[in-house]
Design the sequence.
């Protein structure tokens, strides 16, 4: 295994990871899009190769053995690494124009003020140097400072935190009377309500605008003026602050979208390269060995941002300590059956299939979900223990014929290992009455359930089949639950069209701690099956 | 620059003016639950939230001149429901205290001044007070079961000293009888002082701590003079 990590970064977060990895004696390759390396805490040496400016254009292989293709000064170069960390700083755009203002001696962006404050307090810069020509706000002459936030657009907890922290510093450390003019102040993050209280105690005045907006402009010397109605006091006020601080929109780094496509990692709605999925913690992505840190994965609070570099370095260490996981449970492709339709390559949520003339499974990258097996139109893929008829036989083997006169519906519940199967176990312990004819079949992921599994269960005398998967956003394999839902609905529809009761097949999502809901779902299903009576397929 | 003729220069106000007040007004979340719970919300436009805001901004002139602090009944519902536990009634009282005493609304300041000068809000002379009490006592004694009842004025060493609300020796003398009948039936050893007997303390309403302290001190003096251990202050 090449014990080298590729870091794609351009700022303090990447710097923190380099420090941590180098301290542990690990090899690092740093790829930087631009030429600015002023943020980088180390220069190139035996353990640190710096490629700048360089862009990623390709990535092959998988965890422990990635081959990354980069373009540097028109040259195509290749590097072998065992892991990749994306740590690109976000883009911050001050809303000057939206407020009809321009940067001047009396008007600056939040970033610039934070930068000046960090310098004034002798702290290392955690923020990037703003790109605009510096017009340094002079804090020594400042008596009144106004912060604008969430007035021209939506605010967010990060901007709220930075605004309040800066106001507190000005108020306490510089004797400045501060005002926060806000449309909405988003304080739904760790410690923000407390920070808000601290600023109020320190004397920061908040002015909230719901119906109106402040009028503002600049005088010839660049100083800002504002007039506005305080909606609470019902009074019109004017202010001529020495400093007006404008909030910013924070967006993912511009190259992140292309990078995500090249690396095969999922993005969230805003474009950060970590999907909105509970399993993506802390810095993990949908691919083993590729991590997203800092503002590459989400908008982060000041504290979280400081921790993320360490999180990424820890993830790499953990990967090396475990030597990558052996690829147990990875599917095999049967030679002679595969027609190279590339369905498996497209559907694999973990990028565990690569093309080498033909599709190949990379076992070390495989999570064993079985989605490729279920989706393969040629039944060319097999996964141990997931044979279609084998599973169905296992499910129905001990379903006895109805005892005596009364009808006991035979039900098969295909349960995802990570959610519904655990809920079923809980129900077995705590719920007094589960349906007598219920059989639970554990599967690695509901997405691995093929139509043959479901139909085989009916063929083997099941009166009803339940597909129980994870909630939306909770699927370890990202889309497995959605595949399962779609497939279940398609088959139910199909069964309905041929005159079979489509109610005999049902999809439901459950969390691992929902034992009671599992019991309720199965009892309700049993009641419906009792109404429908025995399946007409059982006599086939 | 836009017209700012009617605008107050916010930067010129001292927002920390009232920060030494222990009422947490700066922590207001502006939720408005106080205004929703206030029984006099809307009277002359009164809005407790707005008042808190004006105090927080340091709008001293406006709040001291405003009628609002005098509309508040100090019932305390606002404080009870406030999520930030802002002590609104005490804050209102502190605003009242900021007014010049001769600008305190009508009867309130008149009552406080009379009490400070004469020991009761009515300026009722001692002889008249005693006459009224004895007159009422005679009426009580005329009722069956209360034969021989007398009012024990200035009785040394009694168990209880009771104060008198001035309206009980003015328009509501019948209400004196209820108390007295209970004392009689219970066999209580009680007394009432012939001076500084006033049970009301309007300095509470006008925000006048000094007046409150003086009035309270006088009652304690009577307890000491009459060597009474317990005080009944039905107000």
Sequence:
């Amino acid at each position: 295994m090449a014990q080298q990590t590729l870091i794609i970064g351009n700022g303090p977060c990447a710097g923190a990871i380099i420090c941590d990895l180098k301290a542990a004696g690990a090899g690092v390759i740093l790829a930087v899009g631009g030429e600015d390396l002023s943020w980088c805490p180390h220069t190139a040496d035996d353990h640190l190769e710096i490629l700048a400016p360089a862009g990623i254009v390709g990535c092959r292989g998988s965890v422990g053995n990635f081959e990354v293709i980069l373009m540097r000064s028109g040259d195509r170069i290749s590097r072998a690494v065992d892991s990749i960390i994306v740590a690109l700083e976000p883009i911050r755009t001050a809303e000057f124009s939206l407020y009809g203002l321009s940067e001047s001696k009396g008007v600056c962006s939040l970033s610039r003020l934070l930068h000046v404050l960090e310098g004034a307090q002798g702290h290392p810069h955690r923020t990037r140097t703003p790109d605009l020509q510096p017009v340094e706000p002079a804090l020594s002459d400042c008596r009144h400072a106004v912060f604008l936030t969430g007035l021209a657009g939506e605010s967010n907890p990060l901007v709220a935190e930075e605004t309040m922290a800066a106001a507190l510093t000005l108020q306490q450390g510089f004797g400045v009377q501060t005002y926060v003019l806000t449309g909405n102040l988003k304080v739904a993050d760790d410690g923000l309500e407390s920070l808000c209280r601290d600023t109020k105690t320190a004397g920061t005045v908040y002015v909230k605008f719901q119906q109106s907006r402040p009028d503002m402009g600049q005088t010839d010397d660049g100083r800002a003026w504002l007039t506005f109605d305080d909606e609470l006091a019902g009074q019109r006020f004017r202010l001529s602050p020495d400093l007006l601080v404008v909030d910013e929109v924070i967006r993912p780094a511009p190259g992140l979208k292309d990078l995500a496509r090249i690396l095969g990692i999922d993005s969230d709605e805003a474009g950060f390269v970590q999907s909105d999925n509970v399993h993506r913690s802390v810095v993990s992505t949908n691919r083993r060995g590729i991590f997203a840190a800092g503002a590459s994965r989400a908008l982060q609070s000041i504290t979280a941002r400081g921790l993320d570099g360490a999180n990424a370095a820890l993830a790499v260490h953990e990967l090396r300590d475990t030597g990558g996981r052996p690829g147990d449970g990875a599917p095999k492709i049967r030679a002679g059956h595969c027609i190279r339709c590339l369905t498996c390559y497209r559907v694999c949520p973990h990028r565990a299939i690569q093309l080498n003339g033909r599709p190949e499974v990379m076992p070390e990258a495989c999570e064993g979900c079985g989605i490729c097996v279920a989706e393969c139109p040629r039944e060319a893929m097999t996964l141990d223990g997931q044979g279609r008829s084998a599973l169905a036989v296992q499910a129905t083997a001990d379903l006895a014929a109805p005892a005596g006169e009364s009808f006991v519906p035979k039900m098969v519940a295909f349960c995802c290992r990570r959610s519904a199967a655990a809920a079923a176990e809980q129900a077995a312990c705590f719920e007094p009455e589960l349906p007598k004819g219920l059989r639970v079949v554990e599967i690695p992921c509901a997405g691995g359930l093929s139509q043959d599994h479901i139909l085989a269960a009916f063929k083997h005398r099941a009166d009803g089949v339940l597909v129980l998967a994870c909630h939306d956003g909770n699927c370890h394999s990202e889309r497995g639950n959605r595949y399962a839902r779609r497939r279940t609905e398609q088959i139910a529809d199909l069964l309905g069209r041929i005159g079979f009761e489509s109610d005999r097949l049902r999809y439901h999502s459950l969390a691992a701690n929902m034992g009671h809901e599992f019991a309720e779902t199965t009892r309700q299903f049993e009641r419906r099956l009792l109404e429908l009576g025995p399946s007409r397929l059982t006599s086939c | 620059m836009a017209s700012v003729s009617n605008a107050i220069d916010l930067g010129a106000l001292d927002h920390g003016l009232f920060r030494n007040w222990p009422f947490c007004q700066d922590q207001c979340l502006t939720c408005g639950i106080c205004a929703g719970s206030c029984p006099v919300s809307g009277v002359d436009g009164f809005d407790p939230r707005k008042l808190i805001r004006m105090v927080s901004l340091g709008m001293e002139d406006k709040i001291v001149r405003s009628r609002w602090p005098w509309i508040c009944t100090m019932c305390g519902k606002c404080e009870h429901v406030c999520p930030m536990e802002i002590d609104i009634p005490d804050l209102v009282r502190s605003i009242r205290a900021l007014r010049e005493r001769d600008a305190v609304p009508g009867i309130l300041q008149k009552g406080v001044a009379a009490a400070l000068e004469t020991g009761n809000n009515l300026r009722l002379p001692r002889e008249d007070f005693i006459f009224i009490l004895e007159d009422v006592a005679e009426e009580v004694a005329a009722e069956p079961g209360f034969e021989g009842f007398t009012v024990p004025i200035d009785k040394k060493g009694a168990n209880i000293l009771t104060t008198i609300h001035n309206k009980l020796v003015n328009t509501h003398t019948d209400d004196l009888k209820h108390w007295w009948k209970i004392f009689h039936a219970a066999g209580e050893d009680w007394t009432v002082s012939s001076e500084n007997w006033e049970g009301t303390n309007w300095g509470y309403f006008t925000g006048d701590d000094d007046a409150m302290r003086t009035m309270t001190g006088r009652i304690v003096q009577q307890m000491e003079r009459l060597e009474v251990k317990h005080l009944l202050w039905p107000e």
Remarks:
- Chain B is about 45% helix and 5% strand.
- The domain at 10-99 of chain B is CATH 1.10.1060.10 (Fumarate Reductase Iron-sulfur Protein; Chain B, domain 2).
